[in-house]
Amino acid sequence: MQHRLSVLVHTPAHSGLSQPLSYLSDEAFPLGQLVRVPLGARETLGVVWSSAESDAHPEHTLRPIVGALRDLPPLGQDWRALIQFCAQYYQRSPGEVAWAALPQALRGLDLTQWSRRWSRFERTPAPAMAGTRPQGPDLTPEQSEVLATLSQGVSPCLLFGSTGSGKTEVYLRACAEALARDAQSQVLLLVPEINLTPQLEARVQARFAPWLGEHAVVSLHSGLSPAQRLQNWLAAHCGRARVVLGTRMAILASIPHLRLIVVDEEHDPSYKQQEGARYSARDLAVWRGQHTQAQVILGSATPSLESWHNSRSASAEGEAGRYHRLHMPTRVGSAAWPRVHLVDMNHQRRDAVLSEPVLQALEACIARDQQALVLLNRRGYAPVLHCGDCGWKSDCPHCTAFRVFHKRDRSLRCHHCGFASRVPRACPDCGNQDIQGLGRGTEQLEEHLGQWLEGLRRPNGEPLRLLRMDADNTRRKGELEAQLAQVHDGAIDVLVGTQMIAKGHDFRRIGMVVVLQADHALYASDYRAPERLFALLMQAAGRAGRDAQANASGQGCDMWVQTHSPQHPLFEALQAHDFPRFAEGQLQERAASGLPPFMHQALLRAEARSQSVAQGFLQFAETAAQALGATTVQIYPPVPMAMARVANVERAQMLVESASRRHLQQFLPRWLAALQQSRDAQRGVLRWAIDVDPQSI
Ligand code: ADP
Ligand code: ZN
Ligand code: ZN
Known about the structure:
Elements: E1 3-8, E2 21-25, E3 34-39, E4 42-51, E5 63-64, E6 67-68, H1 77-89, H2 94-101, H3 104-107, H4 111-123, H5 141-150, E7 157-161, H6 167-181, E8 186-190, H7 198-212, E9 217-220, H8 226-237, E10 243-246, E11 258-264, H9 281-292, E12 295-300, H10 305-310, E13 324-328, E14 339-344, H11 356-367, E15 371-375, E16 384-387, E17 404-406, E18 411-413, E19 420-422, E20 435-438, H12 442-454, E21 466-469, H13 479-488, E22 494-497, E23 510-515, H14 529-543, H15 548-552, E24 558-563, H16 569-575, H17 579-592, E25 600-608, H18 611-627, E26 634-635, E27 639-646, E28 649-658, H19 661-676, E29 685-692
Parallel strand pairs: 2-5, 7-12, 7-13, 8-10, 8-11, 9-10, 11-12, 14-24, 15-22, 15-23, 21-22, 23-24
Antiparallel strand pairs: 1-2, 1-4, 3-4, 3-6, 16-20, 17-18, 18-19, 25-28, 25-29, 26-28, 27-28
The protein binds adenosine-5'-diphosphate and zinc ion (2 copies).
């Protein structure tokens, strides 16, 4: 007898084929079975999705499947529910989400290749419990208290712990607890960017491999080769991997015995996927935890305002009271908080890169043989080249942006589309030979500091060692790790760089942190800019003060912030090291101006060769929304995006919002269906998509 299978396959977005397709099979396969099926002239991977016995297609119109990926356990109900939810919430097809969740190398294997691959996987040794449960250091009183609460199973939790308060130790203990509960249980540890924290991977390995076996810890992130990623995915899916350490993509992995999900640095914007299915791994973690009875711990020293709000006591507005807030205010050991000094740049020489007090402090820091960290969130030499005679600026011909001057290779480079050319000798418009950089980037700061440091020596008489770290000189494999190791080993005295030097590193000898041009973000159009800046500054502050010797001698450490607006309340909260004060202030503003988390938003974005086509589509969408009689959502008119053009593509967007997440969720699929049917309105549109809970507007 022939069975009907309803199979989820990957179909192009908006093709109208967003539902599973029906196929015939000699064998009845369980839901979640991976199969190969014909699709048009191709053969593709599919997932048996629902029972299709009752579908309306006459049998002779259906094609048979090619075959099943034998031996691979079917994807479980939990995973399928997660994919379904993700698709529904973020307004994508389940096929697209499933496709994104399955390792690329798996999608390309035909059945013969699959059986070979599977036997290779089976031959790799399964991890065997090797030793006894690891111990770790004695806990601080705050860590003990938090772990005692966690062991009661409360979930989801927001672990609000200062930088250096020992959150990582809490995660590792909570993982050990979950793993000890039964021999199958698995845990998932999410981090924003794995290559920025190579120590963490080593720390997790060192803790769990001696206990659970060498292959019990696997990682899942985009830096792996496709073959390695498939291997690790299989290990997680088949239960061999007990600890999965990964970036946002790992939230969609099949982990059948998942008991705990940790989201480290939960405020980090990189948890939001920015293309295709634009999901938030943090929000999916909370959903997945609730759905599978896995405990969820979100951790941060500067939580997102969403999570902070969700963990306010239930008497506050809206969705407050949903998360349990756990607090670890104290840094481990003798680690001190830096004293925060604001330097009012209005009172410094106009062309001063580093102010007088900062230079003095830097000299003193070097004399103490401590390291200094100088943060400037702009790479290149100068953000724009400019002709004083005629006003020419180094625009990118393809984007609404300037090309950045890179002195090292004398190039002008657009950081958005990659377009690069050599720096012209003279102004292309008027021939003036004296064209100059406006503003400053990390390359220029490195040059400037290099000159200044030349006259100085370390206490032992050796010359000073300066290192710059940014996306330009850490691109090649291994470069970033090598540079971080140099800083750790104390081989660097002054470290200059973009935000990547501020994140998560456990540097031990930083005596001072300097932040330049901090206020650029304060005047950005994005309402999340202050939140991001505050997080960055707190992170940067957290790098300092881990030098036990300096702390023991009562010397402490310092943070210097050069700004033109020292009176901004954000800096006051920073000086007091008071995240709650900052967060409450921001939440009040957000509530007053009707912004998230008090409002739920979605953006419709359209891209075309011209603004008029992109906006034309959005105007159609506006009319379509009104025709749906949507009274519970507010629809805003189409506008060009803040960066209207990137790589010759014009971009426009339109905001819809509602005070009720449910109302917005009810509206979106109806609207999407109307848009998908509008062949005429889509003419000339290159791409369009809905972004639910957008991270930037
Ligand atoms: P966080 O993740 O909160 O920034 P970490 O977990 O990195 O903090 O801890 C900061 C430092 O303190 C690390 O070097 C860590 O090894 C150490 N540490 C954490 N917990 C303890 C403890 N209970 N006893 C001694 N050292 C600890
Ligand atoms: Zn000119
Ligand atoms: Zn460009």
